[in-house]
Design a protein that fits this description.
The protein has 83 residues and is an alpha+beta fold. It is built from 1 helix and 4 strands; from the N terminus they run E-E-H-E-E.
């Protein structure tokens, strides 16, 4: 499965994470995966929510949960924010 390497900033813990996102997964699924990954990497300092949102760091616009990573225009080196 093809994946893109992206930078995810999590303001709740003021940290950046380099993460591989699967191209064919929809944003809603990816957001749930990211919440779990970030919780694990921060030893649960970050407490995710089912209402977490993935947004573009370039323009602050949230991604539509039903579109795939590729359809959303996410590519290697893109900067994202998880709130």
């Amino acid at each position: 499965m093809k994946k893109y390497l992206v930078d995810v900033y999590v303001p709740a813990v003021s940290q950046h994470f380099d993460v591989f996102l699967p191209v064919g997964k929809n944003i809603g699924e990816v957001t749930v995966l990211l919440v779990g990954i970030i919780e694990s990497l921060t030893n649960s300092s970050y407490k995710g929510s089912t209402k977490a949102v993935l947004i573009s760091a370039n323009n602050g616009v949230p991604f539509e949960p039903s579109v795939t990573v590729h359809e959303a225009g996410i590519r290697n080196s893109v900067k994202l924010i998880l709130i």
